[in-house]
Amino acid sequence: MIAVLRWGHRIPRDSRITTHVALTARAFGADAIYVDAEDRALEETVNSVKDRFGGNFEIRTGINWKKLIREWKGIRVHLTMYGEHIDNALPEIPKENVLIIVGAEKVPKEFYELADFNVALGNQPHSEVAALAVFLDRLLDGKGLGREFHGGAVRIIPNPRGKTVEELE
Ligand code: SAM
Description:
Layout: E1 2-7, H1 15-28, E2 32-35, H2 40-53, E3 58-61, H3 65-71, E4 75-85, H4 86-89, E5 98-103, H5 110-114, E6 117-120, H6 128-139, E7 154-156, E8 165-167
Parallel strand pairs: 1-2, 1-5, 2-3, 4-5, 4-6
Antiparallel strand pairs: 7-8
Helix pairs in contact: 1-2, 1-6
């Protein structure tokens, strides 16, 4: 189980980027995303992508983040530009039951203590979407992008020169 906790989600300010965090989590190999603020519109958007393109990705919003972090049965990885460089941290991080925490605004100090690892995708500021994508790709050795998504209404057939979408229902 690989899950993402998105902390600090503000509606409507972060709606677009949190949607991108969720879709990136799904596409790059996570199983679920948990969002601190309740946001039904975000849940509907992500679930409609799942219905159309398949897979078992779960989204839950309105999460008690402290409880989730404290009770997580596995490893908690907080992505932060202040953390240990990914190249040094990655060999120590187990690849199963990982909760990946990404912020929206400045995260509270306690995240740095609650996390098992504070990991930087380079020690420069960029984006939670970029940080999550690169982290998942490294954690899963590139295999997250190779997963199949079953049960959707359509399937994309890779095409080097255009769009081919197969209707399955
Ligand atoms: N200014 C905020 C702070 O000081 O915590 C960070 C805001 S940043 C746009 C939002 C999130 O992107 C951060 O909480 C972190 O999860 C992620 N992020 C940005 N740059 C990162 C980096 N170089 N490595 C890891 N995560 C990063």
